[in-house]
Amino acid sequence: MGDKACTIIIMTSKNEIRSAELVIVRDGKAISSHFPCSLIKNERLTVKYVKATDKPKKAVSFSARLPRKAPTRELVMFHVLAKGGKNVVRIMRNPALKTKVQEVTVYAYKGEKVKYALRRDGRFLNTIFKKTCALANISTEVNTEMSNLVDGLEGKTFQIIMLNKSSPSSQQPSTKTPASKLSRIQNLFRVEYGQNAQMCREVKTMKRLMDLSDSVCQVRVNGSARGSGFLLFGKFVLTNGHVVKDVYNENQRHLDEKVTVHFSFESLEEVEGGQEEVEEIVGFEYQPDVSGCDWALLRLRTQRALPDGLLAHSGFLPQSGGICIIGHPDGGVKKIDPCLIVKHENHNQVVEKHYNENQGQIHLITSRFFEGVAQSVQQNQQVLTYESCFYFGSSGSPVFDQHCKVVAMHSGGYAYRSSQGQTQSVIEFGYPLSVVIEHHHKEN
To answer: To pair with 304 at 20 to 30 A between CA atoms, which of 43, 181, 192, 208?
Structure first.
């Protein structure tokens, strides 16, 4: 392993089995036999075999060009589903590979194109290069074409899809795509490109959001992260009721444990400051199934100057477009997630998309789960819905619209674990800030 240029094939070629094809599995995903050893850090690899399709071929074919300017030869890794999208379902040379793994890991050199990396990999059918195919990010649905560079693909998972049908080869039956279907496809991509544009932010908008992010904090109980929150006004922090409900005695109106908020947890390397203790909870409501609300207003015990309250920057729910969530997902440092609103009329489509994409991949989750999600999001019409990467630990985060107005408080989602143990979510939601404020006034 001392030689960074060595590859897996060096260690496995001596044990080649001619009637079978070697499958090397790393972290649940198949890697190529020429995968660089420098990318494997004290990890356990699993060796499996599948039935070979053809006569044994050379392990590596370097017909793909390396980037002309690659002095550092910096490597990039990304993952591809072993099953392609519609009209290009079969993408692997050996279809038996899908019986062992659901994803394959591809390595590439920064500065080279996607198609060169896939050709070098050697496990993909030539079909994906003859047709107009692209990599579709399974989380964001953003497409990366074969002619694009691999530089931004690190760690992401994609499905190979066909953008449009190429001329049929002599080995394939000639089929024509109906004009109505082409029209729907064209409209779909018009919508996708439009949505991507909505996620873009002007520099001045991002600078403004960075200023407002100073008012966002992490909520901790006895030093352990429980959620996120933000300074609403004065010494009062707003978060979700479920973040503190386990340590709050609602009948006696007092906290049973020490609760603190942290405004400057932005880096693991820097010395953390900005910690304030919660004196009391002055407003609390946790009845998501009854009143449709889940909030808590915390009074801080401090005499120090605090960031600006975000109540002065509040607004009403937009019907569509881009939003930004700022919080502490997974109990980590402060982050920002630009995402898109999911309109109420599109809820079922989002649920169906997750169900269709994850059939055969979901662990201990049935179609009833997705049916329940569909019913729940349709019944709760007052919440703002969107697709975000903010899951656990981000409850209580402020949701900003395109004008940097706080319009909602990120509160939850419909999460599940895939067979690889990855956390995924069908859709996320936040309660309108205007509704929370209205309920607070009624309570007082």
So the answer is: 208
